[in-house]
């Protein structure tokens, strides 16, 4: 099994930045792409960004493109999400996801105040 642990969430003012981390442990020998999703209160979980683990190619949702940057450190089995120019509508619980094993982290709360 694979365990995913997110960290780095918090409260920030609009226009501010946060950096999320997702550390993978357990059976991580197989290479699978990973991604970030988020879920705001009363809304469905939505895709934010993903990255190919082998060569680091990112994909972004239109709502975050140009503001968020996804990256990974293969040696540390860790994925990151740098979030800049945050908006109140970015407020949500952010989850990391590992494709292939369909593993989810427990989520980390991001709150952006106006």
What can you see in these coordinates?
Helix content is about 0%, strand content about 55%. With about 110 residues, the chain is mainly β. Strands 2, 4, 5, 6, 9, 10 and 11 form a seven-stranded mixed beta sheet that branches. It is globular and about 40 Å long. The model has no long low-confidence stretch (mean pLDDT about 95).
Q: Main beta sheet, described? A: 7 strands, mixed
Q: Approximately how much beta-strand content do the residues carry?
A: over 45%
The ordered string of helix (H) and strand (E) elements is: EEEEEEEEEEE
Give the number of helices. 0
**SS-based structural class?**
mainly beta
Distance between the termini: 40 Å
Mean pLDDT, to the nearest integer, reads 95
How many distinct beta strands?
Answer: 11
Which radius of gyration do the C-alpha atoms yield?
13 Å
The amount of helix comes to under 10%
The dominant shape is globular
Q: Give the low-confidence spans.
A: none
In short:
Helix content is 0%, strand content 54%. The protein has strands at residues 2-7, 10-13, 18-26, 34-39, 46-51, 58-60, 68-73, 78-83, 92-98, 103-104, 108-113. A hairpin with a 4-residue loop joins strand 7 (68-73) and strand 8 (78-83).
